[in-house]
Amino acid sequence: MTTSPKAAPEVMEKLVSLCKRRGFIFQSSEIYGGAGSVWDYGPLGVELKRNIKELWWNAMVRARDDIEGLDAAILMHPRVWEASGHVAGFVDPLVDCKNCKKRFRADDPRIKGTPGAPDGQCPACGMKGTLSEPRQFNLMFKTFMGPVEDSASVAYLRPETAQGIYVNFLNVQQSTRQKVPFGIAQIGKAFRNEITPGNFIFRTREFEQMEMQFFVEPDDAPKWFDYWKAERMSWHRSLGIDQARLSYHEHSGAELAHYAKAAFDIQFDFGGTLGSQEIEGIHNRGDFDLTQHQAFSGKKLEYFDQPNNKRFLPWVIETSVGADRTTLAVLTNAYREESVAGEDEGRTVLALSPLIAPIKAGVFPLVKKDGMPEMAQKLSAELRAAFPVFYDDSGAIGRRYRRQDEVGTPFCVTVDGESLAEGTVTIRDRDTLQQIRLPAEQVRAHISERIAR
Ligand code: GAP
Question: What is the dotted CATH code of the domain comprising 359-452?
Answer without folding.
Answer: 3.40.50.800
